[in-house]
Amino acid sequence: MRHGGGSSSWLRVWGYDDALLAERRHPTVAELDAATEDVPTVVHHVTGHVAVVNTAAGRALGLTSGDVLVERQDLLAAVPRADRGATVASVAEVLADLAAEGITACTDATHTNDLAALELLAEAAAMSPSIDVTAMVGADRLDSLGGLSFGGEVRGSTAAGAVGSVQIGHAKVMPPHDDDSAIAGLVAMARQHGFPVAIHVMDIDTLQATLDALEAHPPLLAGMATNEACRPVPDRPVPDRIEHCALALPEQLDRIARLGVAVVTQPSFVTRRAQKYREQLTPTEQAWLWPLASLLRRGIRVTLSSDAPTVPADPAEWVEAATGRELAPAERIDAVTARRLCLDDR
To answer: N or C: which terminal CB in the chain sees fewer CB atoms within 10 Å?
Structure first.
């Protein structure tokens, strides 16, 4: 997508996945320069968590070193963007595509969401009313809600008068790159606003820091009318969520169960990234990969999802991966259970 015009025009690209590339790595600055020359270019990873920039873009963004930006939203925010109307139309198209695939509800788990993002999403939802939309809000951006609480609603409308809405979901906690120590502060911030949290967890160390943070900052008790910030609290605690839980020790799963935390996981990763896992993980680690049956045996609440657009929003694929995975086959579950987990709430 090109933004701007003339010599100030930028090229912004999305969708590469290093796990699926023959090189098993991110593109380098030199490779981007060879293809893009002096056009400032940002190439976003399919997960949205990494962006590679060429020399011209790095210069414009004030970078002094490094080929890859990891969780540097402060820098990426300076990249020119499409106008609001084009963005709303693109989001509405995504929602329509999901509805066409039989998806009836989705959650936007973007960790940079604030009130403005929810308003944009609500406007897009008005253009695609056949799917229910929930949006998480970045734990560090809850002040932007202006007192709106968890479970509340943000409404939007089109020029033609169609009305859409977005339900306010969990506070999303995205640990800064290589800094799991920030998790506890973000959880505490969410608690001050009366929000349950959804924490992005892809490895054992991050899971450990997550469990420590949740233990130090337990959910608000049922029956409390308000929290410290005088915001409403649900009649009963809403479970905190671990997003992904890609790698976990058995004793960590025991702790998840004790804390009453729910897990939203994506079995498609096991099949789509199987080669990467075989190359980069030991046999012991592979046995701990993307647990599913182990979660259910412990009575942990589990929901299957896609993490789209990283992998397709296709429940049939989730069921197939959950029932027929080759890596860690002990984590397979039966098809009836897998289909039920696809239907759980968001």
So the answer is: N
- Give CA–CA dist 31/110, Å, rounded: 29
Q: What is the value of pTM for the model shown?
A: 0.86
**CA 298/CA 260 separation, integer angstroms:** 10
The domain containing residue 60 runs over which residues? 2-76
Q: How far apart are CA 69 and CA 43, in angstroms?
A: 10
Is residue 340 situated within a structural domain? no
List CB contacts of 69: < 8 A, sequence separation 6 or more.
50, 51, 52, 53, 63, 75, 76
* Alpha-carbon distances, residue 180 vs 25, 45, 177, 212 (angstroms): 24, 21, 8, 11
Tokens 């609603």 map to which residue? 153
Q: Count Cα neighbours of 162 within 13 Å in the Cβ-side half-sphere.
A: 13
Give the closest residue to 48 by CA, choosing from 70, 26, 21: 70
Rounded to whole angstroms, the Cα distance separating 132 from 164 reads 9
CATH code, 66: 3.10.310.70
d(C-alpha 190, C-alpha 141), whole Å: 9
What is the signed CA dihedral for 204, 251, 279, 206, rounded to 10 degrees?
-10
50 lies in a domain? yes
Which stretches does DSSP call E strand in 91-161?
105-108, 132-138, 153-157
Q: Please indicate, yes or no, if residue 29 is contained in any of the structural domains.
A: yes
How many structural domains is the chain composed of? 1
- Residue 309 falls inside a structural domain: no
